[in-house]
Design a protein that fits this description.
The chain is α/β, with parallel strands linked by helices. 41% of the residues lie in helices and 23% in strands. It is globular, with a radius of gyration of 25 Å.
C-alpha cells in the first residue's frame, strides 16, 4: 500500500471562484494528498444538457446563450485568480457537438458522452492551473483520465475494465505521483478500447476516484462534498440530523442503494476489496467528516434514507376458488410478460401490492386484464423510507413505538421490504416531512 492519499472534490464544492481558495487550504493542511479527481463545476453538466436540447430544437439563439454562459462561468474563475487555461478550445469543442446535434437531429449516447466530458475537462484544467500558481514549489500535472480509465462501450453508463485500468495506472500515472507533485484528474470520464470517450453514469466521479485509488493501492481515499460527512438523515429535510464520526461499509452501501445521496454505490466496491480507508468530508470544514470502516458497527440504527415519486397499486383477489399462491403467481407472470419491474412487491392478506416508479405505468389494456380476476386500486404520490443499522433487529421495539406514534396521527406506514440491516416502509408522500422527522426523533434521540 502506498503512503499517499487520493482525493475527490465534487461540483458542489466548486460553486464560484472563492471555492478554489477553500480547496487550496484543504490541500495545504493535507500534504499526503498527491492526486485529485475533480467533478465539473457546479451546474455545468446541466448547462451541457441544455446545450444539447437547444441544439436539437435548432434554437440557435438559445445555443449561443448557453455557450456564452459556459465560457463566462469558467472565465470568472480564471479572472478572479489571474490564471490561464484552455477555455476557448474546450468551449469550441462544445460548439462543434452542438452543431452536429442540430444537423443530425439526434443525440446519440456516444456524442453525448463526448459533450459531457467537456465539463470535467474544463474544471480539471482550471484547477490544475490554479494549483500551479498557488503552489509554485510543487509540480502540478493535468492528467487526462481517459488515458487510464478504460471501459466498455456502453455509452452513458460504461463499465470499467479493471485490469486495463490497473495496468495503465502503474505505467503512466504512478510515475507522476512523486512527493513534490499534485496530479489533477477529471472524474466521470473514460475511454473504450476503440478510443471513444465514455462516461461512468450518475455520480461517476466517485467511481473514478475509487477505481484509481484501488489501482494505485493508496493509503486513503478522501471524498469532499457539500456537507461534512454522512448524516443520520438528510440535514436539508431533518434539522436535527447529526453527523456520524464513522460508518461501516455495509451500512453506507445500503443507505446509498436506498436513495441517500452519500456516495455512488458502485464506488465502494473497488476500495472495499482493497480495505482502503475512506473519509467523506467537506471543503468548507475539512477536519469534520465520516470515516468508513470495514468492521460492522454495533449500532441499532445508522441512518434513514427517503425516496419519493412512486405510486402504489393494490391488487385484491376476488375469486375465492383461486388459491393465494396461484393468485400471486399469476400476477408475477403477467408483470414478467409485460416487462414491468416494481420497486417492491409485498403481500398483505389476500392481495398483492406493487410499488412502482412514477416513470413506469400500467397500460389501460393491462389494467383491464387484471380486473378480470382482481380488484385494482391505485394510490398516487407514494414515498419510501428505509431505516438502516447493523443491529436493526434489536431496535424493533423503538421502530414499533415510532410507527404507533404516527398511526395515532392517522399516518399509516406499510412495511414493503426487509433485509439483514434494513427495513423499508411505504406511505403517502404528503406526510414526508412528518414521517422523516418523527422517526428520526424517536430512533436517534
Amino acid at each position: 500500500m502506498q503512503d499517499f492519499v487520493l482525493a475527490k472534490i465534487g461540483g458542489s464544492s466548486l460553486r464560484g471562484p472563492a471555492c478554489l481558495d477553500k480547496c487550496r487550504n484543504l490541500l495545504a493542511q493535507s500534504p499526503d494528498i498527491r492526486a485529485i479527481v475533480i467533478s465539473a463545476t457546479f451546474n455545468t453538466t446541466n448547462l451541457l444538457e441544455e446545450l444539447a436540447e437547444k441544439s436539437l430544437a435548432r434554437d440557435f439563439k438559445a445555443v449561443v446563450e448557453v455557450l456564452k454562459k459556459l465560457k463566462s462561468k469558467h472565465l470568472e474563475f480564471a479572472h478572479a485568480h489571474d490564471i490561464n487555461f484552455p477555455v476557448d478550445e474546450l468551449v469550441l469543442k462544445a460548439q462543434t457537438y452542438a452543431q452536429r446535434f442540430s444537423q443530425t437531429g439526434t443525440r446519440c449516447p456516444q456524442a453525448m458522452d463526448s459533450l459531457y466530458a467537456i465539463g470535467e475537462l474544463l474544471s480539471a484544467n482550471l484547477f490544475a492551473a490554479y494549483l500551479q500558481k498557488t503552489f509554485p514549489e510543487k509540480k502540478v500535472h493535468f492528467f487526462d483520465a481517459r488515458d487510464v480509465i478504460i471501459t466498455d462501450s456502453n455509452f452513458g453508463s460504461a463499465l470499467p475494465l479493471h485490469e486495463e485500468i490497473k495496468l495503465r495506472a502503474e505505467e503512466i500515472l504512478r510515475p507522476l505521483l512523486s512527493k513534490n507533485s499534485i496530479v489533477v484528474i477529471p472524474g466521470f470520464i473514460g475511454r473504450d478500447l476503440k478510443g471513444e470517450t465514455t462516461t461512468l453514469g450518475r455520480e461517476g466521479s466517485d467511481l473514478s476516484a475509487a477505481l484509481l485509488a484501488s489501482a494505485l493501492d493508496v493509503s486513503g481515499l478522501h471524498i469532499y462534498k457539500d456537507v461534512a460527512g454522512i448524516y443520520s438523515a438528510d440535514p436539508k429535510l431533518v434539522p436535527n440530523a447529526h453527523a456520524l464520526k464513522q460508518m461501516d461499509y455495509e451500512s453506507i452501501n445500503t443507505l446509498s442503494e436506498f436513495g441517500a445521496k452519500v456516495i455512488f454505490p458502485r464506488a465502494l466496491t473497488p476500495v472495499m476489496e482493497k480495505e482502503i480507508d475512506v473519509f467523506i468530508g467537506s471543503t468548507e470544514n475539512p477536519e469534520e467528516g465520516t470515516r468508513i470502516i470495514k468492521e460492522s458497527l454495533d449500532a441499532k440504527f445508522s441512518g434513514i434514507s427517503l425516496r419519493s415519486e412512486f405510486y402504489r397499486i393494490d391488487l385484491e383477489k376476488i375469486d375465492n376458488e383461486i388459491s393465494s399462491e396461484n393468485f400471486k403467481d399469476n400476477i408475477l407472470k403477467i408483470l414478467a410478460e409485460e416487462k414491468i419491474t416494481p420497486q417492491n412487491i409485498f403481500y398483505p392478506r389476500e392481495s398483492v401490492c406493487l410499488i412502482l416508479s412514477s416513470k413506469e405505468g400500467l397500460t389501460t389494456e393491462l389494467r383491464d386484464h387484471l380486473r378480470e380476476f382482481c380488484k385494482v386500486s391505485q394510490e398516487n404520490r407514494v414515498s419510501m423510507i428505509t431505516i438502516v443499522g447493523t443491529k436493526i433487529k434489536t431496535g424493533k421495539d423503538l421502530i414499533s413505538k415510532a410507527l404507533k406514534t404516527l398511526q395515532d396521527d392517522e399516518i399509516s406506514l406499510s412495511q414493503v421490504d426487509e433485509g439483514a440491516n434494513f427495513l423499508t416502509f411505504a406511505f403517502p408522500s404528503r406526510f414526508e416531512e412528518k414521517v422523516l422527522n418523527q422517526l428520526h426523533h424517536i430512533l436517534f434521540s
